Amino acid sequence: MTDPISDTGLAARLRRPATPQYRDDQAGLGGAEPIAVYAPRDAAETAAVLRACRAEGQKLVVQGGRTGLAGGARVLPGEAVLSLERCTFAPEIDPVAATLLVGAGVTLEAAQAAARDAGLFLAADLGARGSAQIGGLIATNAGGPLALRYGTFRQQVLGLEAVLPDGRVIRRLSGLSKDNSGYDLSQLLIGSEGTLGVITRACLRLHPQPRGRRVALCALARLDDALPLLQRLRRELGPLLAACELIVEPLLSAACAARGLRHPLPGSAALVLIETAGMSPEADDAQLEDTLGALLAEAIATDAVLSQSERESATLWGLREGCSHYLFEIGPITSLDLSLPIPAIPRFVAEGAALLAQIAPDTRAHAFGHLGDGNLHYVLTGHQPEPVLRAVFALTAGMGGAITAEHGIGLDKVAFLPLCRPPDEIAAMRAIKAALDPDTLLNPGRILG
Amino acid sequence: MTDPISDTGLAARLRRPATPQYRDDQAGLGGAEPIAVYAPRDAAETAAVLRACRAEGQKLVVQGGRTGLAGGARVLPGEAVLSLERCTFAPEIDPVAATLLVGAGVTLEAAQAAARDAGLFLAADLGARGSAQIGGLIATNAGGPLALRYGTFRQQVLGLEAVLPDGRVIRRLSGLSKDNSGYDLSQLLIGSEGTLGVITRACLRLHPQPRGRRVALCALARLDDALPLLQRLRRELGPLLAACELIVEPLLSAACAARGLRHPLPGSAALVLIETAGMSPEADDAQLEDTLGALLAEAIATDAVLSQSERESATLWGLREGCSHYLFEIGPITSLDLSLPIPAIPRFVAEGAALLAQIAPDTRAHAFGHLGDGNLHYVLTGHQPEPVLRAVFALTAGMGGAITAEHGIGLDKVAFLPLCRPPDEIAAMRAIKAALDPDTLLNPGRILG
User: Fold this and answer.
1) Which of A44, A119, A265, A440 is deepest in the core (most CB within 10 A)?
2) Distance between CA atoms of A112 and A90, rounded to whole angstroms?
3) Dihedral sign, Cα of residue B373, residue A181, residue B100, residue B182
4) Which of A337-341, B158-162, B330-334, B400-404 is least confident?
5) Which residues in chain A have their CB less than 8 angstroms from residue B339's CB?
6) Best residue in A156, A173, A180, A206 to probe B by mutation, most B CBs within 10 Å?
7) Where do the FAD-binding PCMH-type domain residues begin and end (chains A, B) (predicted)?
8) B-chain residues near A164 (CB < 8 A)
9) To the nearest 10°, the Cα dihedral for B113, B114, B116, B120?
């Protein structure tokens, strides 16, 4: 293998050893050895790599922290890696505008810390915060539990600096929250999974730090009751409602049993974890307590536990997070992140179970996730074959859902995209891809195949 | 003139009399008589019009309520009008998902009322609510005072049904708040001013109804004090802060004098109107009062008036809105809606005045607008010639601002777009336009010229 850009003098400066971690993301299916790994430091160096690779016809896969779960960063044979790991402009805060300017290669955790040090709040979080990078989080429009209150990464982005496949640079970094001067190309790049351009810097919106939080866990007699529960929580709590997570039993019971933990609310059909976070802790607490009281009085919830301290709040969240850990420990699983119209969630759980009983009777399905966003983590035991996935995705799409809420299409869901996107829409996506990347240089085969 | 699609049988069904109101939007510069006016009822009829016009090479201008201020809906010679006025699917609310499905031709006011009747809140408002239509508001990414708290129309859209120039239909109407299944074409269409597709329906996000509001007006000794004021308001009030409007004196003084109203806080350099709206009126009021007390104690504000009733709240808002009315009454004006990095606003006001003193000494400039969004309405007396506009826009762009925050580029600002968008970015916009509308059928000459 030869370095396609070694003649340009760039290689010596930008090339990194092609160590094994560059081969795949956390989907973990194993990628090829890349032709080369380039790690530019800024937009100008990124543009130079793209121009040189374009001249040589060298295809590239763009990598951030490689914490994705859809194979989007996995190396295909013959590809070079473009890693943003050195694109680490230190976070700059503007306290008056409440904005954060940050390099694509900075981790979410470092960006969160920079905001916190300035007394502000970057309203995005997820488990991979220590290794997931800002550029990748934006390119995949990452979500997480805070998305209910603050939106996904799309809503945190005020503007991007990005290099298009032909080496052109777009740059909207002055932190304008309103700007109707032409098409918003930043918005097009968000969620395009590196197929339309390489994000090198971002200007993000910051929020005030909430003053304390309170967490409650509610037990439901029937999964259907999750719908009026959510509706009431929204109406009563408004912007205080910071998270609303669903766990369908017997998942929490199994997770508690496996770890020797006491289940705080045994015997229910489902549990809903609620977090409130606002600016007036006392008044906010009273409002949560009143709301829980009304839900219990009307038997929408059958029982509830309310945290009395930050430690108890963490314990309740630990139960929710323990469900994820438990599922990764029980052996091979197939984890789907489905998006559903919220009213369809109980029906989906019932019909999904019936479907699996028919086509994969040895498979168990576990459902949990972000109720308030309609984002269901649907975890099947075992490595599931393509026809089972296709049937579950078809059920999802038939209810108006989407086959991925947060994780994206990557390489691994390309074959299923037509289930939830009609041919007209995919044709329009292809037209945009061809317009910006006529040589299919960047992340070929991802999203559109 | 002949109807280019009369042979297809569509014309009889869809054609409307080409009465004079179809010629222009509220920019009011006077448009041409259209070749024909088509008013399809849904996406299928819209697609039929687009296909027929494409076959004939007939260019179209898309119209909603024609309340735009940038000439985007103005008819150019030889164009037909595609009006969404009959695309009026009645609003459908899903109370559990908190979504509103609505036709593009429904007015904002009717959509707001439908949400309110269901106990929910469509978090978008502006003066033209009675005639501005949902489709046009989305196509132009309209803003207004609520944008500070809830974002512009972009943030209200969960998904769109739209017809692309080739007659293909895209449709994301199931109200998913998370969906990373391919490029988000809805986001690309928002703010593209009808140049990339015709929006026929939208699924919008609804919010809980806030329980009451409170309004305060603060006097500032120096315009610079607006910056620490905003920073403190954000930090103390968080999501309670629903609006934060700036009026630079002597505008309010002049407006009050012209209408014989008492100025509540004379002798200041600028005024800031604050609205809070939350879920706990008593606690929220206490928090606003505490915050105002601190601002006065620290002399960030020199004086303040706090509404004691809904009527007083309306009176304070009336002062703000009176500034707009006053400016339209004083004779010919040139009204710019600039977007600036918030920290640059005081400097812009000072340097703008200095610039005008040099190049247009008879011109007065008035500044007011949405402080929290960096959105400055900058109103110049008189019909200003191109060089003056260019100089003001160049000053804006030089500070990292954009030449239009809310109103869009339309026809009237096309020549100025390169001041705030570099050639690389405009080239990328052109590539996308060419990919989706190779014959330049839809809204030719708008945005990109």
Assistant:
1) A265
2) 12
3) negative
4) B330-334
5) 176, 178-179, 181
6) A180
7) 30-209
8) 424, 428
9) -140
A270: pLDDT strictly greater than 60: yes
Any idea how long chain B is?
A: 449
A-B C-beta contacts closer than 8 Å: 283
Tokens of A79: 């590809």
> Can you read off the two tokens belonging to residue A65?
């922290």
Return the amino acid letter for A403.
I
Question: Strands A375-381 and B92-94: what pairing?
Answer: unpaired
Contact by Cβ (8 Å): B228, B290: no
- pLDDT classification of A10: cutoffs 50, 70, 90: confident
Q: Which domains does chain A have, with CATH numbers?
A: 6-86 (3.30.43.10), 92-208 (3.30.465.10), 213-328 (3.30.70.2190), 331-407 (3.30.70.2740)
pLDDT at A28 over 90: no
Burial of B20 (0-12, 13-18, 19+ CB in 10 A): exposed
Nearest-Å Rg of the Cα atoms of chain A is 23
List, for residues B356-368, the tens digit of each pLDDT value.
Answer: 999 999 999 999 9
Q: Is the ipTM of this complex over 0.85?
A: yes
Express each pLDDT in B51-86 by its tens digit. 999 999 999 999 999 999 999 999 999 999 999 999
Contact by Cβ (8 Å): B70, B222: no
B368-378 per-position pLDDT tens digit = 999 999 999 99
CA distance B365 to B338: 13
Whose tokens are 């001013």? That residue is B193
Contact A178 B407 (CB under 8 A): no
- Alpha-carbon gap, residue B23 to B30, rounded angstroms: 7
Name residue, tokens 């009143």. A290
- The pLDDT tens digits for A82-124 are 999 999 998 999 999 999 999 999 999 999 999 999 999 999 9
Instruction: Identify each DSSP E strand in A211-330 by its residue range.
Output: 213-220, 241-248, 270-277, 303-306
Structure tokens at A373: 């966003």
CB-based contact A182 B425, cutoff 8 Å: yes
Of B151, B183, B420, the CB nearest to A429: B183
The region of weakest confidence among A25-29, A174-178, B288-292 is A25-29
